[in-house]
Amino acid sequence: MVQMQEVYYLRIILVLLILFLAILWVKKRKLSLRLRHQHHEIAQSLRDKGVLLRELNHRVKNNMQIVSSTLQFMAKKSKSDEVKAALLESELKLHSIQMAQQKITDSSDHDQIALLQYARDLLEVFNQSILANQCTISVTGDHVHVNIEQAQALGFVLHELITNSSRHAWNNARQKKISVYIRQKSDLVYLVYQDNGEGLPDGFSSTDSDSYGIRFIHSIVKRQLRGAMTFSKNEGAVFTIQFKRR
Question: Which pTM was predicted?
C-alpha cells in the first residue's frame, strides 16, 4: 500500500514537472516570437532611417554644390580683384564643409570624422588652390575622431592658417613647408600648425591683430571649439590649438 502511494505521488510530481516545463516552453516560445517581431521592426526602422539619411545627405551635397558653383561664377564675373578673392575664399570654406559632409556620408559612423585624414585631404586642396602646389605639407600624429561640427570648425581654422602663411610667411625663395601635428591626450585634442616662414612679429596678439584671418581663428577656437590657442616663433610661425573632443 505504501509503495502504491509513493508511485502515485511520483506520478503526480512527474505530471506537475511536465506541466511546469510545458508552461516554460510556451512562455519562451512567446518571448522568442515577440523578440523576433521587435527585431524585425527595429531592422525596418533602421533601413528607413538609412534611406532618409542618404536622401538628406544627397540633398545637402547638391545644395552646397549649387552654392559653390554660384560663388565660382560670381568670382569669374567680378571685375574687382578684392571681391573675387573674397568670393573664392568663401568657396574654399564651403569646400571644407563639403568634405566633412562627404566623409560623414561615406563613414559607418554618421557623427565622427577621422581628423588626421580629413586634415590631409583638406590641406591638399588648399595647397592646390592657395599655394599652387608650391608647398610641402605633412600631416602626422594620432588617429583622433571628432564630431562633424568640430571637424568643420578646424577646417575653417586650417584654411585661415594656410592663407595667413601664403600672405605673410615667405618673403624669400626658401622652400615652403607646412607641418600639422595632431595629438590626443585623454579627452583633449591638440593641433599644432607650423610653417617655415619669417615667423610672427614682435608683440603679436591673436586678439589685437590687424589680420581678419587671425581674429577669425581666435573666434572659431573660442566659440565653436570652446578651446584655446597659443602661438610661438620657432623657425617660423607655430600655432597650437587645444580643445576637448565631443
Answer: 0.66
